[in-house]
Design brief:
It contains four helices and five strands, in the order E-H-H-H-E-E-H-E-E. The chain is of the alpha+beta class. It has a single domain, classed as 2-Layer Sandwich (Alpha-Beta Plaits), CATH 3.30.70.640. Strand 2 and strand 3 form a beta hairpin. Helix 2 runs antiparallel to helix 4. The longest helix has 19 residues. The chain is elongated. The two termini are 23 Å apart. 32% of the residues are buried.
Length: 158
């Protein structure tokens, strides 16, 4: 069994020392889905949500959240983000807002947590902006789609 890098010999949490690692280009793509009622979907689509433009606010909140990832996740390194984009698409067949993020850095550690944080907070923002209409909104399928770079190599979700 592989040892966790975030624990010491006694099993206590610690931050990984990345000082000896070489800086390399790293990318990560993540996704999430927000399932809403037809009524809420139509209001998002026609930009009739009382709190404002749901898709624009969710995009900005995801970008902002990615930049604050190390403040939210205690053992996550504070890394320079070269690029972060959040794309939101409406899927009318499923009454779903599909969220994807793509993050890029040149660093000694990966950028997966920033990509995952971006889609997670975007999804929570959609919930917050629409909850007055329907509290049964469901956030699903938060996942890492891919990552490149680093010692562990590339990963693509199957």
């Amino acid at each position: 069994m592989k040892n966790f890098s975030h624990t010491d010999k006694s099993g206590k949490a610690k931050m990984v020392d990345v000082s000896s690692k070489e800086k390399t280009v790293r990318t990560a793509e993540a996704s999430a889905e927000v399932h809403v009622s037809k009524k809420v979907f139509d209001k998002i689509k026609s930009n009739e949500i009382q709190k404002g433009d749901v898709l624009a606010v969710a995009k900005i909140s995801g970008i902002q959240a990615a930049k604050k990832t190390s403040e939210l996740i205690p053992l996550c390194h504070n890394i320079f983000i070269s690029s972060i984009d959040v794309v939101l698409n409406l899927n009318e067949k499923k009454n779903t807002v599909e969220i994807k993020s793509l993050a890029k850095t040149i660093a000694q550690t990966g950028i997966e947590m920033e990509a995952l944080t971006a889609v997670s907070i975007s999804a929570l923002t959609i919930y917050d902006m629409c909850k007055a209409l329907d509290k049964s909104i469901t956030i699903k399928e938060i996942k890492l789609l891919s990552k490149t770079g680093g010692k562990s190599g590339n990963f693509h979700h199957k």
